[in-house]
Amino acid sequence: MNKLIGKSLAFVWRDFINQTSYKFSFFMQFFGIFISILTFFFLSRLIGDVGVSYLKPYGGNYFSFVLIGIALFSYIGVSIEALSTSIREGQMLGTLEALLVTQTEIPTIILSSSLYSFILASFKVAMYLLLGVFIFGIDISSANLIGALLVLFLTIVSFSSFGILSASFVMVLKKGDPISWIFTSIFGILGGLNYPISVLPNWLQKLSYLLPITYSLEGMRLALLKGCSLRALMPNIVALIIFSFIMLPLSLFVFGYAVRRAKIDGTLTQY
């Protein structure tokens, strides 16, 4: 356990040094959060009470609805893209082969390579919520924090599966990574990121319920904006557990196969 923690901290420190070496770009990420919130705040004022019937299950306020969506999507984006980005950088810098021939197990590499990105995403989400509450006045006083944290954990687990699949494509195809772009686009359109899925045609609504993001966003909004109990959140929690049990073992198997194939082909150092 101590060895695992030590290796994970080494990965985090490496990524932190790399990120903060570009100081202006690092701090602009947080400035961009404020700009994003401000944009949706003014957009919500333009929309006003239009579509309030669609937003009623989530409190009826568009700004709070979309703020929770874009905050959670920070985690989803990291879950899908962090590992593949780390693998790609390792290929280009020539450090991937050295890492994979060590005694470090693949699950440890997967966890550690994404850990810094999740820590940074947590700071971003905290900024979204703090700015939303203290500057723009959204009300989460009745939030079910335990339910929200449980939904968040299951969201990270289920979406990390897509990130591992994405990294598998990068491992084999190098530049070719159709997974992250395709799924991020589909999730953004059908998952209820910027609008409730109830505005979609019936046939698209049925498709949206086949995606884990639908349950993640709905569960998080119900927990934070409505303070729903764990019992009320159970349909979303069970759906995310099912996605996790199916996708995580499958993605780990695919990634292990991709690593073995790259070793056999001798393409670990190619980019």
TrEMBL record:
Classification via InterPro entries: ABC2_TM, ABC2_TM_bact-type, ABC_2_transport, Nod_factor_ABC_transporter
One of the record's GO molecular function terms: ABC-type transporter activity
Pfam families assigned to the protein according to its UniProt record, in alphabetical order: ABC2_membrane
Membrane-protein topology: Multi-pass membrane protein
Major place of residence: membrane
Ranges where the ABC transmembrane type-2 domain occurs: 31-258
Protein name, entry field: Transport permease protein
